[in-house]
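Weekly modeling sync, notes
Attendees: S.R. (lead), two postdocs, one rotation student

Agenda item 3: backlog of single-chain predictions. S.R. asked that every request posted to the team notebook include the full sequence so nobody has to chase files. The rotation student volunteered to paste the first one in as an example of the format we agreed on. Action items at the bottom.

Example entry:
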Amino acid sequence: MSIGMLFIGGGLGSIYFATNFYGLLLSGAIFIIGEMLVVPTMDATVSRLGTARMIGVFFGITNFVSGVGEGGICRRSIA
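Predicted structure, as returned to the notebook:
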């Protein structure tokens, strides 16, 4: 999971250095690889820790917090 977070951070951080469309494509690809490594691990962890009655709530909270966190990182790198 930590490797995935490094890819996500690298993808978001490399947006700053992108000077053309292909640089943005590369940044997006790096970010997507990180997401592919992190999201299944998060889902598996939530599935193991959540009870059958509350699993939908846990998935909702997890995805909301993940989205807010990525949005905050992206906003800081642009500003």
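Discussion: group reviewed the output briefly. Residues 21-49 form the longest helix (29 residues).
Action items: rotation student to repeat for the remaining queue; S.R. to check formatting next week.
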